[in-house]
């Protein structure tokens, strides 16, 4: 009997010892004193589908931002986690949950108004910083949410100034029903009203493929300028239809032409764009991304730098949000950008023109 009891005691000690060892080795990471703590940044972006090219370019820009850091001077190591959402609403939400529950991210970078609005509540609930590359100001609502993107108001002001110089009196807006496009249209209509420029607007559902009837109606009414706030493939189709119906129709856009893969269809046309990457970075981004489409890459690059600055300045990870909130100005590749009272960092809008199939800067 004593042997049985003794045996049970030995077995119990061994089992408890194994259980304790397992808990210690699975929940406590083994780190050396020289190893830096890790900050994980989750980027929820489309890497496939209609916006895949822009998502992949943003991914490349973020990777370059990390590569350009002087890591010897940093107290943290940084890693980027990427997940393709395919521009699907459910997948966007699923990716965010994976970032929180599996990736254990310390920050989000949400590309676009659509993704930003889905990310906003989970960032607040989980107390994770979210930098939205978004034109929808609502993305910045809450303590943990911020925006790093040219605002629709700045772009609208730039557009109206150009229209006034050209003595345009009557314009038509063609707008996709989308958070980003509609935010841009709303700001533009307000600026047009203040300038006394007559305007009308036609909206298109994302599922619509043929704008011919709407374009025919607008041309018959005779507008001085047609402002396209559309996404491809509708954008490409609309441009072709305008040229077929009236080769003299004056077209322009806010941001849309920068998203075109084939810019030859708007050769010689000026438009307003979000803040532009400095020319010194063109070759760098083009080589790394294997693309000369620079739409939004500056925002992704600077968003990484902004997060790094906040985490490095904070005493703890949890205090990074205070550092970001109190930051009055950030100096990145898009210039010195001031943070407003709503948590929005807004680089200035620019004017571009398509020359030889490429967008070039012609005015700031």
Describe what you observe in this structure.
The protein has about 375 residues and is of the alpha/beta class. About 45% of the residues lie in helices and about 20% in strands. The chain has eleven helices and 15 strands. It has helices spanning about 1-25, 50-65, 90-105, 115-125, 150-165, 180-195, 210-220, 235-245, 280-290, 295-315, 320-325, and strands at about 40-45, 75-85, 105-110, 130-135, 145-150, 170-175, 200-205, 225-230, 250-255, 270-275, 330, 335-340, 345, 350-355, 360-364. A six-stranded parallel sheet has the order 2-1-3-4-5-13, sandwiched between helices. Strand 6, helix 6 (about 180-195) and strand 7 (about 200-205) form a beta-alpha-beta unit. The longest helix has 26 residues, at about 1-25. It is elongated. It starts with a helix and ends with a strand. Residues about 1-35 have low confidence and may be disordered.
Largest sheet: 6 strands, parallel
Secondary structure: helix percent = 40-55%
How much of the residues is beta strand, in percent? 15-25%
Question: Span from first to last CA?
Answer: 91 Å
Mean pLDDT: 90
Low-pLDDT segments: 1-33
Radius of gyration: 25 Å
Number of strands: 15
What structural category characterises the helix and strand content? alpha/beta
Note the total helix count.
Answer: 11
Shape: elongated
Order of helices and strands: HEHEHEHEEHEHEHEHEEHHHEEEEE
Spatial sequence of strands, sheet with the most strands? 2-1-3-4-5-13
Describe this protein with a few key phrases.
single chain, 364 residues, alpha/beta, four-stranded parallel sheet
């Amino acid at each position: 009997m004593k042997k049985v009891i003794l045996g049970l005691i030995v077995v119990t000690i061994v089992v408890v010892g194994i259980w304790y060892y397992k808990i210690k080795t699975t929940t406590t990471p083994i780190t050396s004193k020289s190893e830096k703590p890790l900050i994980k940044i989750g980027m929820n972006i489309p890497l496939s589908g209609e916006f895949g090219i822009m998502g992949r370019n943003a991914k490349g820009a973020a990777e370059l931002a990390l590569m350009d850091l002087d890591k010897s001077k940093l107290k943290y190591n940084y890693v980027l986690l990427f997940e393709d959402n395919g521009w699907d609403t459910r997948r966007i939400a699923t990716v965010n949950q994976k970032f929180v529950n599996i990736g254990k991210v310390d920050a989000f970078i949400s590309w676009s108004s659509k993704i930003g609005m889905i990310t906003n509540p989970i960032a607040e609930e989980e107390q994770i910083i979210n930098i939205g590359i978004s034109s929808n100001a609502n993305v910045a609502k809450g303590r943990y949410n911020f925006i790093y993107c040219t605002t629709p108001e700045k772009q609208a002001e730039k557009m109206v100034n150009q229209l006034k110089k050209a003595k345009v009196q009557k314009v038509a807006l063609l707008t996709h029903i989308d958070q980003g496009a509609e935010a841009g249209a709303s700001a533009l209509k307000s600026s047009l009203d203040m300038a006394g420029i007559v305007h009308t607007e036609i909206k298109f559902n994302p599922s619509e493929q043929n704008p011919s009837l709407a374009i025919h109606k607008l041309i018959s009414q005779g507008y001085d300028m047609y402002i396209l706030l559309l996404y491809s493939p509708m954008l490409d189709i609309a441009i072709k239809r305008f040229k077929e119906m009236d080769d003299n129709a004056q077209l322009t856009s806010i941001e849309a032409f920068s998203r075109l893969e084939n810019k030859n269809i708007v050769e010689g046309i000026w438009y307003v764009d979000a803040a532009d990457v400095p020319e010194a970075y063109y070759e760098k981004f083009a080589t790394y991304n294997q693309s000369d489409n620079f739409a939004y890459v500056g925002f992704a690059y600077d968003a990484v730098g902004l997060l790094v600055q906040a985490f490095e300045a904070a005493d703890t990870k949890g205090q990074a949000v205070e550092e970001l909130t109190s930051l009055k100005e950030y100096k990145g590749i898009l210039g010195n950008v001031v943070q407003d009272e709503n948590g929005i960092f807004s680089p200035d809008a620019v004017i571009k023109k398509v020359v030889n199939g490429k967008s070039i800067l012609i005015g700031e």
